Amino acid sequence: MLRRFAAVIVSLLLAAADLSAQDHHEHHGHRMSSDVSGMTMNENTDRLPSECAEISGHVNLTVHAGRRHAEGRPGAMFGFSDHVFEAGPCSLVTVTLVNDDEIRHQWMIHGLPRYLYPGGMFHLETAGGTRRSGSFIVPGDARTYLVHCDMPQHMEKGMKAQLLVGGGSGDLWAVPGTSDAFRREDYLGTGDAWAALGIFIATFLAGLILLRRA
Ligand SMILES: [Cu+2]
Questions:
Q1: Cα 134 to middle of ligand 1, angstroms
Q2: What is the pLDDT of residues 7-20, one digit of tens each?
Q3: Distance between Cα 204 and ligand 1 center (Å)
Q4: Percent over 90 (pLDDT), the chain
Q5: How far is the CA of 50 from the centre of ligand 1 (A)?
Q6: How far apart are CA 97 and CA 132, in angstroms?
Q7: Which residue from 98, 101, 108, 180 lies 20 to 30 Å from 65 (Cα-Cα)?
């Protein structure tokens, strides 16, 4: 109950953050290349994050996307061939997204430095049956980044993944094969959970008292 409540609150907060981020995009614009088969947004092969003296290495990720990658996962409809990716700090990451379906899919990463990536993101979008490659440079600190497909309902239906840079900073929730669907985000802390429980019990007791008086 509490977990579900927390999950709902978190998704509302994420949606609000997403809306403000989209507003942000309007003002700054993305570096974008597109054609009938898809789109690459915010590719970056040479501009270094401030803490990186040089590109430390090159990581090549080939990721398949489609319904077949949801097989064996109850409740999932879509998936990636991998849901956990790893890269060293300051590395140049090249993603090749191979779309095994007949509908559009994306590989979108969030939380990158906004001075390099408008909206903090890089993304590839592919029409059904096509493939597309693009590159970006990751920052130098140990952190976990959200990766997903932003087509309506695709993340909720299984297209959620994470990129661990420098070993990452923990797992996100609802990453297929890695974490539970409704794990609390770490930033909420346990104190908030106890506070919410306290409020719930207080409300319950107050209701009981009112009922007795009536
Ligand atoms: Cu998708």
A1: 17
A2: 555 454 555 444 44
A3: 42
A4: 64
A5: 32
A6: 5
A7: 180
